[in-house]
Amino acid sequence: MQMTNFSPAQHGFKFNNQFVNDFIPQLDVRTGGLCGGMSYAALDYYNTHVPIPTQRFRPANGTILHSYLYDRQVDSIKPNVPIWHCSRCLQAPALFRF
After folding, report:
1. pTM > 0.85: yes or no
2. Spacing of C-alpha 77 from chain mean position
3. DSSP H stretches of helix in 1-98
């Protein structure tokens, strides 16, 4: 397997992953964190040889950087939705055991 010289300390974001996401605002459903989005975005910056933003504070909701991280979070989740759904379906009978 080919490895890169990616170093989280050097190439990762400098702010903490303390996001609160309005996932389904109409139903007041929120999620916490953008770990997948931050990982994908850090690799995007690394692979395109663009320096990662150096800010040490979490970007505010609705900013360009926050929107980019959120979109990359969605990208990190999409491929797994069918797997999670199937897994829950297989476990569903266990919910009805008494």
Report:
1. no
2. 8
3. 8-11, 35-47, 64-77, 81-95
Residue with tokens 């910056």: 45
What Rg, from alpha-carbon coordinates, does the chain have? 17
Q: What is the pLDDT along the chain (98 residues), one digit of tens a residue?
A: 888 999 999 999 999 999 998 877 888 888 889 999 999 999 999 999 999 999 999 999 899 999 999 999 989 988 877 766 565 555 545 444 43
Q: What is the H or E stretch that residue 68 is in?
A: helix 64-77
The angle subtended at Cα 42 by Cα 7 and Cα 9, nearest 5°, is 30
96 token code pair = 């009805």
